[in-house]
Amino acid sequence: MTISAHNLWLIPLLPLLASASCSVIRRRGRSLAATFAILAMAGSFILSCIALRTALLSPASHLTSNFTWFGVGDYAVRLGWLLDPLTAFMCVMVTLVSLLIFIFSIGYMKDDPNFKQFYCFLSLFAAAMLGIVVANSLLLLFIAWELVGLSSYLLIGFWFHKPAAAAAAKKAFITTRIGDLGFFMGILWLNNATGSLLFYDGGRGVLEPGSLAGLAAQTTVGGLAVSTAIGLLVFCGAIGKSGQFPLHVWLPDAMEGPTPVSALIHAATMVAAGVFLIARVYPLMTADLGLAGAPVHALTVVAFIGAITALMGACIAVGQNDIKRVLAFSTVSQLGYMMIALGVGSWVAAIFHLLTHAFFKALLFLGAGSVIHAAHHEQDMRSLGGLGRRMRVTFGTFAIGMMALSGVPFVFSGYWSKESILHAAHEWDVSSLPFLMGLSAVVLTAFYMTRLVAEVFFGKARSASAEHAHENSGVMTVPLVILAVCAVGLGFLGTPAWPWLQSQLTGSTMPAHSLLEGGGLTVLSIVLVSVGIGTGWALYARHPRQTEDVQDPLERAAPGAFGFLAARMRFDELYLATFGRANGYIAALADWLDRRVVGKIVELAGRMSQSAGRFNREADEEGLNTGFNAASDELRLAGKLYSQAQTGETHGYLRVLAIGFVVLAIASMLGGSR
Amino acid sequence: MNALPCTVYISLTGALLTLVLGRRSPGAARVTALGSALLAWGIALVAAYQFHPSPAGLQTLVDVPWIPQLGIRYHLAADGISLTLVVLTGLAATAGILFSWNVEERTGEFFAFYLTLIGGVYGVFLSADAFLFFVFYEIAIVPKYFLISIWGSTNREYGAMKLVLYSFAGSALVLAGLLWAYAAGGAQSFAIGDLAAAATQFSHTQQVGMFALVFLGFGVLAGMFPFHTWAPTGHVAAPTAASMLLAGVVMKLGAYGCLRMALPLFPVGFVFWQPVIAWLAVIGIVYAGLIALVQEDFKFVIGYSSVSHMGFVLLGIAAANVRAVSGAVLQMFSHGVIAGLLFAVVGRMVYDRTHTRKLADLRSMSLYRQIPFAATVFVLAGLASMGMPGFSGFPAELTILIGAWQTSPWCTAIAAFGVLVAAAFTLRVIQVSFFGTSSPSVAGPSHTAAMAPISVPEKIGAALLVGATILVGLKPDLLLNLIEPALRSPLFQGVLNGGAS
Fold first, then answer.
1. How far is Cα A532 from Cα A622, in angstroms, rounded to an integer?
2. Which helix H or strand E contains A66, and what residues bound it?
3. Smallest CA–CA separation between A580 and chain B, in Å?
4. Is A76 an interface residue toward B (CB < 8 Å)?
5. Interface check A115 vs B, CB under 8 A
6. What is the rounded distance in angstroms from the CA atom of residue A407 to the CA atom of residue A411?
7. How far, in Å, CA of B331 to CA of B311, rounded?
8. What residues in B contact A188, CB-CB < 8 Å?
9. Could you tell me the CA-to-CA distances from B145 to B18, B120, B148, B166, B173 in Å, in that order?
């Protein structure tokens, strides 16, 4: 059975339909909602397996199906679906992990009043995530990327009545959108430079040699090749979504969401989308490698950001006391490893680690969820303890996850994928710094995971909730077991002796090596893992904590450093004091400007017209009117004078009349004599 | 198509009828108003459905002499751009009436003013004669004053007066610019084509001056920074339906005027002013967004967001290529729908029930429990407003930014930053207004009892608007296929290709 790229949209469609039907189901239709969501996910999983089979028939080819979304004249916005091994492996991973987490959530969320809403958002997330994976267009990928961000927002804030959850949701959305801003700029630029956003389009796509040569040939500000600049802008999106330094601050806060959400979105799938994105546009990222004299290569930046993140995340994880926060910083750190792999040129190693990490980190989070559920939402490991005997399945599977994450050799998948990253970093000829930072993080990872397991499962219960904890029902433990099996088995798909996964992803047969290839490095990393686990064991497992308020051994030894790590290196405080405050001031300034300045200018203009009016009126009063008044007064005066003459005395009139008559007579006589 | 002029006549007749009927029964006035709005909208939809673009652009509907001594004609015509906006007007008018179903005070007069305003707006969108355009423009301005000052709320006389003075100041500039062009062109005709032909003979200074007058005059009504301050106060003071129309349609009159008059008539002047307009637009986008971030009054947030979104329209127009301008027209439609929806939720669904718009008060009410429908609609409208894919804002802003990047990447980058700010203020207001922090147990049944459930007209109105934004969001071709051929007409080609620098 095969599936054509043309029908690939069915994979995201199924969960989307489930989401839509969950949104119209009545509130009480709980089992119906869960059934829809799980069935849809199972359907998608089966389709993904068929897609994988199809892709592996010819691993080197990119099967595409493109269509026009809308057009503006001669310019068409085109989208499409893409089927290649990268897509197919991601689809299988996303659908399988989602399916298991959906099942687990039946138990975990069973008392929640918004149960069906949960499945609605979760299915929406799965649909959007699968959309990212099957997209053959940077724009379609971006659309799905935004929808993933939206569903992450909705799910982190699922318990929005908790102020911390509401704040975390907003923080996550805004922080990742800062990265997306760069991503979006990259999209616009790429579109302008190549006229297309399709990855593969029969020779005209942006990832195909024709476009890439053009992009690498042009230079822009600072002598950067255009492809470097666009690559770095796209990488901004990956920094935001994948919790890379300096935008990692949202990811630990996102743990306010329900634990299955943390497992699915903030560990296994969405946060890895940044890594997937860079792997997808890898031809673009590497287009500048051949350029001599380029100021910087895009991948160099990726490697260093990854290295900083890997080490920083591991350090901070050491100082955390909340189970989920330890795991969150561990995710940050592991994503850093994947970025190192991308940066040093081995995208295959990055995807290998992405796939193994998805399973063992989902396992760890669900294990943590199982603990939290059993211990009545107590997630401070100082208050837990002694759960190993009470929750055997959870303990066993969690231990497998822990060993996979720490990189315990030969058996666990995490070892193989991390080893391949370290080998690649070792061979990188630009700088050995990422390699050394990665090695240091290996010790820390083994150490903090041992600490976590010892604190939670060893010793005695240190609180009432831990004492009353007991193993959860099968709906929660069975997914744990399946994930544990994957966490072990998946590693064998990509060992140096049989590099099947690597061959399939690249579409070319990889040479097989002995298991101990690069022996010195292998031994070194085994030693480092042992040191990490040994130290952790010595400090935490040999003498387990007795009560909740005993100081941590590290805190006793170096209170300042431990406090700094516990406060997550104070990034939040730093950002709040700088960007947060600046933003507040600028917004307040703009508001003030609008009310006081622009508003006042308008008012002033109004006042001025008023004053002009008043002036005119005054001028009327004083000038024209006064003149008028004055003239009237004169008239009146004259009238008064005249009126004084009107005395009303007949004698006076007659007298005047007589005088007048005499004057007239004299005058006419004089005149007549002439 | 040929029935399009009837939209004007129906609205004005409807205004008269509601005035008469309203004296007897408010119900009859409501039904009449709704009927005439629906009829006009139906005509617009049918015309849009049957529309065949012509290479000449505007297709004449009516053309008779009006004041022959001055060469003024009663000339109505339509192209894809005017059709898009006519359809928007019909939708906004219908939804606005549904959201004004609860107006009890002088109902007849309310709808009479409302329909007069709508009639004027239809007239503006269909005018092909500059003088006629101006007359309809004035008809649309006057009823706004009465709607706000009689049925408004906070500070209504001030808001109404400010808005009307700004509008008249703007139209005075427009009139001055048009008369100058008319006189300089030999005082023969006010037809847009004739004016444009005459304008080719004008000196550079004349073009620059005339463009400045006309564009600035229209820009005031489009909420162009720094002449936007009428918009927030006016929106806040206005009754729900009037703010819906103000933000949804009246601001579009300004942008439409810029696009229909200023650009084709004075292409040389446009090239001169283009960078200024682009930067003012970009500043407006970010500046208004930042202000919206710190408002304490729910309606002010939406008011400023309107200014910010209209900045995208102006940016698209300033970019002066077919993509960006198509996007700008699409954004006019999109913003008309989304802003209408936002104001409907704030003014009708929330304010009429809670009698407060202070975010601090709303925070303690946990409104999502009492009016979940309003919460859902507002979340959808908020997502649309912040440019989430799936809603009309996304393709509109995307098309604008793709086009604007060709003209000026830096402006585009800053404008895209405005999208980030929009997300910030929208999320803040969603969270504070509906999903306040009061614990579940505190929100007692007393609140629930006090609040009227969302009525049927409100639901229908919301469904219309949400449906429109999603439909256009998924299938922007529906409108772009109307808009884009209009921009290929000779009048626009002169400026849209020459303008790009």
1. 96
2. strand A63-72
3. 12
4. no
5. no
6. 9
7. 10
8. 401-402, 405, 409, 412, 416
9. 19, 14, 5, 11, 20
B409 neighbourhood in chain A, CB within 8 Å: 188-189, 192
What does each C-alpha distance from A546 to A241, A383, A462, A534, B374 come to in angstroms? 40, 10, 7, 21, 52
Question: How big is the A-B interface in CB pairs under 8 Å?
Answer: 115
Pick the closest to residue B298 from B361, B244, B249 (CA basis). Answer: B361
Distance CA A540, CA A381 (A): 12
Q: For chain B, say whether A24 makes contact (Cβ under 8 Å).
A: no
Task: pLDDT tens for chain B, 501 residues: list them.
Answer: 788 888 999 999 998 888 888 888 888 888 999 999 999 999 999 999 988 888 888 888 888 888 888 888 899 899 889 999 999 999 999 999 999 888 888 888 889 999 999 999 999 999 988 889 989 988 888 888 888 888 887 777 787 888 888 888 888 899 999 888 888 888 788 888 888 888 888 888 888 999 999 999 999 888 888 888 888 888 888 888 888 888 889 889 999 999 998 888 888 888 889 899 999 999 999 988 888 888 888 888 888 999 999 999 999 999 888 889 999 999 999 999 999 999 999 888 888 888 888 887 888 777 877 888 888 899 999 999 988 898 999 999 999 999 898 888 888 999 988 888 888 888 888 888 888 765 444 444 444 456 788 888 888 999 999 999 999 999 998 999 888 888 888 888 878 864 443
For tokens 């300033």, the residue is B318
Enclosing H/E stretch for B59: strand B59-67
Q: Do B229 and A602 touch (CB under 8 A)?
A: yes
Question: How many other C-beta atoms lie within 10 A of the C-beta of residue A585?
Answer: 10
What are the structure tokens assigned to A473, written together? 């029902």
Contacts of B431 in chain A (CB under 8 A): 157, 160, 166, 170
In the 3-class helix/strand/coil scheme, how is A540-597 assigned residue by residue? Answer: HHCCCCCCCCCCCHHHHHCHHHHHHHHCHHHHHHHHHHHHHHHHHHHHHHHHHHHHHH
A265 Cα to chain B: minimum distance (Å): 19
Instruction: List helix spans (H) across A344-473.
Output: 347-374, 387-390, 392-406, 413-427, 433-457, 464-467
Cβ neighbours of B165 in A, within 8 Å: 606
Cα-trace Rg, chain A: 39
**ipTM of the complex model:** 0.88
CB count, 10 Å around CB of B348? 28
A 129-158 near B (Cβ less than 8 A): 139, 142-143, 146-147, 150, 153, 157
How far A339 CA lies from chain B's nearest CA (Å)? 26
Q: Which amino acid is at A532?
A: G
- Classify residue A628 as exposed, middle or buried by CB count within 10 Å of its CB (0-12, 13-18, 19+): exposed
Say if strands B72-78 and A63-72 run parallel, antiparallel, or are unpaired: unpaired
Q: Could A170 and B412 be called an inter-chain contact, meaning their C-beta atoms sit closer than 8 Å?
A: no
DSSP character at residue A77: E
Tell me the residue type at A218.
Q
For residue B486, the chain A residue with the least C-alpha distance is A73
How many Cα atoms sit within 13 Å of A166 on the Cβ side?
18
Minimum distance, in Å, between the CA of residue A603 and any CA atom of chain B: 9
Residues present in chain B in total: 501
* Whether A563 contacts A573, CB under 8 Å: no
Q: Look up the pTM and report it.
A: 0.87
Q: Is A673 on the interface with B (CB under 8 A)?
A: no
The rounded distance, in Å, linking the Cα atoms of B122 and B333 is 14
Say which residues have a Cβ less than 8 Å from residue A214's Cβ, sequence separation at least 6.
Answer: A193, A194
Rounded (10°) angle between helices A115-134 and A85-108: 170
Contacts of A606 in chain B (CB under 8 A): 165
